[in-house]
Amino acid sequence: MTAPSAPTALQMVEGVDLTGKTVVITGASAGLGRESARALARTGAHVILAARNTDALADTETWVREHVGDARLSLVHLDLTSLASVADAAAQIAELTPAVHILMNNAGVMFTPFSRTVEGFEIQFGTNHLGHFEFTRLLIPALVAADGARVVVLASEGHRMGDVDFDDLNWEHREYDKFAAYGASKTANVLHAVELDRRFRDSGVRAFAVHPGIVATSLARHMTAEDFEALGNRARSDRGGESDRGEQRRSKPLDVTKDFTTPEHGAATQVWAAVSSDLADAGGVYLSDCQVARAASYATDEARALTLWDLSEQLCTQAAPA
To answer: Angle, nearest 10°, between helix axes 132-145 and 178-200?
Structure first.
């Protein structure tokens, strides 16, 4: 479990005043999103809670108000598996606020059985990356209007389990591997942050990719005991090995069988990314344990980030409702 000295999300906002600013958090109905909402509501910001499960979202609103009596909260329905829902949510946010100062792309799915989004995208890539890509793209005017905005993209050390296959983004020509598919979606999250920051930093928008740790949340609800064993074996087989791009693996690979953290600690890095003055002149970087960390080289390659951006834009534009 988490070491006693590990910081919490609430500690990250001590002394931070965001009165008059607006925060949008996806996946705010549970886990890391809920903890982030509580912490950021403490700053005086207007926090817009976005999620698919409206009942759970209402529960989060009640929970946050119990802890932050004067919280300024709004609720928006957002289903990242539907680009129509993504467009509706972005339109609702535009009506609520002219500017978004912090966008936290927190929602996601993990190790799901094979399925597809409404538009036919593989579910993990479609939800974790494409849904957030389009949501962020639609909010760009509001982010630029903030005159100093941050986009926090929840990635994972799981990105080391798979690179993005640009020739088969939707797993149409390969046998489905839910671990590799998750890894690819998390690699896409890192690449998204890299290119987003490059494109819009001159307009005052900075982007960060965050690994929150191995957090005990409902995100792993699709995992069986056999899945945990297989994932542990997969991590151990990577120890000290070489990736297909010839880079040295990290010395301590992802291990879901131990060292779990809890949401209040797991949300610390993403909240730090959203508010810390230490990152005032940074962007396009990968963060872990409230510090800049090193991601796999294929996840931070600027040429690959540009390629993914162009492909994602094409896919979303072609599939978006008329």
So the answer is: 20
